[in-house]
Amino acid sequence: MSFGQLPYDVAHLLAGAVLLMSFVLLYQRRIGAVISAFATQGTLLALAAAWQGHIQGAPGLYVTALLAFVAKGVLIPIALHAIVRRLDLHRTVETALGIGPSLVAGVALVALSILVVLPATEGARALAREDLAIALSVVLLGMLMMITRRNALSQVIGLLSLENGLILAAIGVAGMPLVVELSTAALVLMVAVVAGVFAFQIRERFDTLDTGSLEEHRGEGR
Amino acid sequence: MPLQWLIVFLPWLGAAALAAVPDLRRATFANIGVSALSFLLAIALVAMPFEQHGWTRTDALNLPFILVAAFVGLTTAVFSAATLEAEGFDHWRVRAYHAAFQTFMGAQFLALLADNLGVMWVAVEIATLATVSMVAVHRTPAAFEAAWKFFILCGVGIALALFGTIVLYLAAQPLLNEETGLSWAALMAVAARCDPGTLNLAFAFLLLGYGTKAGLVPLHSWLPDAHAEGPVPISAVLSGLLLNAAMLAVLRAKAIVGSHPDAVAPGPFLLALGLASVLLAALSLWRRRDARRFFGWSSIEHMGIAAFAFGLGGAAANLAGLIHLLGHSLVKSAVFFGVGRAAQAKGSQKIADIGGLVATHPALGWGLALAIAGIAGLPPFLLFASEIRLLTAAAGQAPWLALALALGMVAAFAALITVLQALCFGPPTPDAARALDGWREAAAAAPLWLHLAVAAILALAMPAGLAAMLADAARVVG
Q1: CB-based contacts of A207: which residues, under 8 Å, 6+ apart?
Q2: Is there a contact between B74 and B39 (Cβ–Cβ < 8 Å)?
Q3: Tally: H helices and E strands in chain A
Q4: CB B106 within 8 A of CB B15
Q5: Is-above-0.90 flag for pTM?
Q6: Which of A99, A106, B239, B348 is paired with A117 by a 20 to 30 Å CA distance?
Q7: B411 φ, ψ to 5°?
Q8: Radius of gyration of chain B measured on its C-alpha atoms
């Protein structure tokens, strides 16, 4: 299986689309749009998982796909919208690093992950290693989003999109054991993070997760 | 059901049952009962021969840690029976606290026992979720802050660890069948023939991921806050158990990567992170005003020392690292028992508000003084034995690094002794809370003294069986 064959190309297309949504997440300025972009990414991830299930002949991946779609395409975005309404959060995204520089950093990270993964994994099959490079890019972009955003909610979405990268990596490795169990366990963690936002709902805390306001609560005094 | 599964599922069944007990008194005693049964199971497990069973394995590397985990779990249950009333929980929090505690214990045993790296990852994740909910249980802004930081940083950490696990499987995939994939034993068997580049990539992610959970610099910043804001007994299990499980995961990854001749040598990375942790912690210890955060930082220092030992490699240094981890579990949880009880009695956990414990609470004060001396590396406790072994091994293998390590250890030692004098001697500060009833006061101090006794006995006369097991384990780590 290589470039120019349908299974390979569609798998690449879907993985690339997931990566594209990571960039979309980086340049949105309204929190509502960020959540919608995350929902799209979740849905694309579900499609990618289903396609991998099809070409690898691994029916377990359909379960992963279904879970990804229901949780990340539908339920988590609904919950996030509800959090924004309930806690009356700022509707704009506060950035610690401007949108332009973030995008430049994002491109650099994608280049980095290609440069790291492709030479390091020469033993593996072409599709697996290229998928891994894309997945690592999604992971790094998720981290970048966590670093460059001030609102706690955007940071949570960064973490969620980082986890999308993990699932993308897991489904790309043909024959990976426990892939369904692991992706479900990772999903449980993410659902717990979103539930944590609900449970710890202190408005001020989530509007500004500046290091400045963190210090006050560290019991060290001034 | 084999013992390996029993020791995991017993605490989890206990968690389900404890979630239904609203009464504080009954819940604490049931909690002690479950922990005592787990401890008996751990002893039985150690008495059995090593075996690999499904997703679990028992070997020389994990059995000592399982025994210590069960022991610390039991003493923490006793300690929390004595002190939980002072936390002022309503019945929901009593349920949540005990359920989370036993869920954590089960996950801890599973993380230590797991042979399958995927199962190990899931266990570490469950342990994280359980501890986050325990840290947040007071629902104060500071507790939420600590829990949130813990959650997000460790969330990223374990996400990276999963990525590392996936890459590790990718490296070994051509040599494995689907049945044994992700099994540590199977990976060890084929590691020498894997693709070295992919192994390197996997190790980088596994080290960063599980290193976050072990509190290694630069991803350590969740640790002091998480230790300071939860209920008092939680600090003891966080420091004594969770960090060990994460470090053991790092060691398993190191053993796999280290057995490939062309892969990058994992030692220098562990050395660098370990040394950075020791030096940063040694400096930070001087700036702390909060007693529980202070000892949280001290945990970072000790994890750094252990990482340094494993990074150095070789039988002598590895043995020193393993003894250090075990000694740290025993002595640091003793310190947290003492500091936690003192903070309750004085109504504040600021170092300035706790003073003269020896005069006002002799049993607690002297116990805490000995425990802090033990954590600072003074004889006759286990950490003295491990630090001497490590420094002699390091002086032979890498004298300059040994010098840097010794500097960090001396700076930390001085900070610890300063705090020891402030907390235990110095002018007494007034008590804020009423004294506990007779049996509670005794039950709060007993775990502290028991830990000290065990740490001293193991240092002075380690049972031959345990010593042989640790020497075996030092070879497994490679």
Answers
A1: A89, A90, A151, A152
A2: yes
A3: 10, 0
A4: yes
A5: yes
A6: A99
A7: -60, -45
A8: 21
Q: How many structural domains does chain A have? A: 1
CA distance B365 to B424: 5
> What token pair was written down for B206?
């596994």
Contact B159 A139 (CB under 8 A): yes
Q: Which domain holds residue A43?
A: 6-203
Residue ranges of A 166-205 with Cβ closer than 8 A to chain B: 166, 169-170, 173-178, 181-182, 185-186, 188-189, 192-193, 196, 199-200, 202, 205
Give the A:B interface size as CB pairs under 8 Å.
145
DSSP letter string, B269-327: HHHHHHHHHHHHHHHHGGG--BHHHHHHHHHHHHHHHHHHHHHH-SHHHHHHHHHHHHH
**Quick check: B47 and B3 in contact, CB under 8 A?**
no
Cβ B452 vs Cβ B460: under 8 Å: no
Cα separation, A25 vs A72, in Å, equals 14
Note the ipTM here: 0.89
In a domain, A220, yes or no: no
DSSP H or E run through B52: strand B51-53
Residue A123 per-residue DSSP state: T
- Reported as a single tens digit per residue, the pLDDT across B269-291 is 999 999 999 999 999 999 888 99
Say how far apart CA B240 and CA B303 lie, in whole Å: 11
Rounded distance, CA A54 to CA A48, Å?
10
